[in-house]
UniProtKB/TrEMBL annotation, chain B:
Signal peptide: none annotated. Residues 22-78 form the RNA polymerase sigma-70 region domain. Keywords: Sigma factor, Transcription, Transcription regulation. This is RNA polymerase ECF family sigma subunit. Belongs to the sigma-70 factor family. ECF subfamily. One of its GO terms (molecular function) is sigma factor activity. The lineage of its organism: Bacteria, Bacillati, Actinomycetota, Actinomycetes, Micromonosporales. It comes from the Bacteria.
Length: 118, 411
């Protein structure tokens, strides 16, 4: 088994402008995903939208600088994540294909293997 | 003896490399290690066979040597690290296969996994399935060996770290995954058919590799209509390759070719495969392309070419596969059927298309219709454009001759 991070990217404005019906269908798809993945899910959360983010980076003198906003200013921001355990990439692709963000047009899911430090 | 051994090893390399590597990879679950051991086995054959004689089944000998060495190496590593390798035999063997249990098939599907970039898929297939060296693969795709080496290393790293499984796809996935494999084989074939650059029109080494791969896939999946159609397409096109270049290295157009030099056995084989593939209700794009190639192959003379049939096939192909290149070929076929005016009219809307902006065959097709209409100045401009866009020497020479003829006519 290996660990994989599913990073859900998309346009926050479009997420926030879902109708109640769309929102309900969206939530139901996440429930279906979590049911399918079952115990393979180790963690996961939806994140508060990216303008609320705070980014840290040290300057040349080593002083930590805080900036308001996400690390990368892009239209398609990180909206949430799942951490999964799976045998191989094919298994993760199959599960991740259930996520509603894959089909929403403005959004998508990135799969990143987790590097295990011993 | 040494010459015979050298030839036997070279033949075994071409025919058995994929099997030796695939079986070793299956036993170890480690592509890099399998590749090293397969290379060592071929090197050892060069040293051993002069003394022992060439074995009756060179592939079996090579596989055994490679696998033993891989097992020894894994044992050494395990003792050294005192832990299991990342992928062990049992795990690599698990997983649903579509009854396609040939190791070579697993190897091909792993190299052509959709999570890899198309360029990486083709490079890995040439490197791992065909056994080409990194510099040979680099030459095929016109990049430096260092760039290609980095690309291959990166793809192998992704296979290991993202855990792209070493197996053929499950039945419900097979359709989509075969498509990717066929596109890779087709890419290798097309690159060989008209080399994007260089002194030769045709790269026979790449054509042979693509045909080997097509035959292998057909052997492993004999009932897959798309696989049959793609092999048919390659056979029908390759059957004409001997006549495409004159003795002086000059490119010969289809209308100038000596049809007696076409390989009739290969044409018959391609047509037979195509006929079987066409029994399916929804022919693939390869089946339609092969049908077009078959119409050309079966015309006794250039004048006998059945252009209405070819246009009709392009019509269907364009609906199935709306590619700009198909639209261009269809436009050219309409010009052949209805004359140069009609051809130019069909080509005109394609001029604005950015995907064809650097495609030399659009300019070349226009140039030819303009030449037929005796629009010398416009034809010359179109030939100049085509010359600037092609990177292939025989093509450039052909176009330059045409340009000079057009200029003489206008003077």
């Amino acid at each position: 088994m290996a660990k994989y991070m599913l990073l859900i990217y998309g346009d926050a404005e479009q997420w926030e402008s879902m109708t109640p019906e769309q929102g309900a269908a969206h939530d139901a798809a996440h429930v279906a995903f979590r049911d399918s993945a079952g115990v393979q899910i180790i963690g996961g959360h939806e994140l508060v939208s990216s303008p609320v983010a705070t980014s840290l980076r040290a300057d040349a003198a080593g002083d930590v600088m805080l900036t308001d906003g996400p690390f990368l200013e892009t239209k398609e921001a990180l909206g949430g994540y799942y951490l999964l355990e799976a045998d191989d990439l094919d298994q993760v692709v199959k599960l991740a294909s259930l996520l509603p963000e894959v089909r929403a047009g403005h959004s998508g899911v990135e799969i990143r293997p987790v590097l295990e430090h011993e | 003896m040494t010459d015979a051994v050298g030839a036997a090893v070279a033949l075994a390399h071409r025919r058995e490399w994929a099997q030796v590597l695939a079986t070793t990879a299956q036993a170890t679950g480690d592509l890099d290690l399998a590749e090293e051991c397969a290379q060592d086995a071929f090197a050892r054959a060069l040293k051993t066979w002069p003394q022992t004689g060439i074995p009756d089944r060179p592939g079996a000998w090579l596989t055994q040597v490679a696998r033993n060495q891989a097992r020894d190496e894994l044992r050494r590593r395990e003792a050294f690290r005192r832990r299991m390798p990342l992928l062990v035999t049992d795990e690599a063997a698990a997983g649903p296969d579509a009854g396609l249990d040939d190791d070579r098939l697993r190897l091909i599907f792993t190299c052509c996994h959709p999570a890899l970039a198309r360029e990486a898929q083709a490079a890995l297939t040439l490197r791992l399935v065909c056994g080409l060296s990194t510099s040979e693969v680099a030459r095929a795709f016109l990049v430096s060996p260092a760039t290609m080496g980095a690309r291959i290393t990166r793809a192998k790293k992704k296979i290991a770290e993202a855990r792209i499984p070493y197996r053929a796809p499950a039945p419900d996935q097979l359709g989509a995954r075969v498509g990717v494999v066929l596109e890779v084989v087709q890419l290798i074939f097309t690159t060989g058919h008209t080399a994007p650059a260089g002194p030769r029109l045709i790269r026979h080494d790449l054509l042979d590799r693509a045909l080997d791969l097509g035959r292998l896939l057909h052997l492993l999946m004999p009932t897959d209509a798309e696989v049959s159609a793609q092999l048919a397409l390659m056979l029908l096109i390759d059957a004409r390759s001997a006549s495409r270049v004159g003795d002086d290295g000059r490119l010969l157009l289809l209308e100038e070719q000596d049809r007696s030099r076409w390989d009739t056995d290969q044409i018959n084989e391609g047509v037979a495969l195509l006929v079987r593939a066409l029994r399916h209700h929804n022919p693939s794009r390869y089946a339609l392309q092969a049908a077009i190639a078959a119409v050309h192959a079966e015309a006794k003379t250039w004048a006998d070419t059945d252009w209405p049939a070819i246009v009709a096939l392009y019509d269907r192909l364009l609906t199935l596969w709306p590619s700009k290149v198909v639209a261009l070929n269809r436009a050219a076929a309409i010009g052949m059927r209805d004359g140069p005016h009609a051809g130019l009219e069909q080509l005109d809307p394609l001029l604005a298309d950015p995907t064809l902006a650097t495609y030399p065959y659009l300019s070349a097709a226009r140039a030819d219709f303009l030449r037929q209409l005796r629009e010398w100045d416009k034809a010359a401009a179109a030939y100049e454009e085509a010359i600037a866009l092609t990177g292939n020497d025989p093509e450039r020479r052909f176009l330059t001759e045409r340009l000079e003829a057009v200029r003489r006519a206008s003077a």
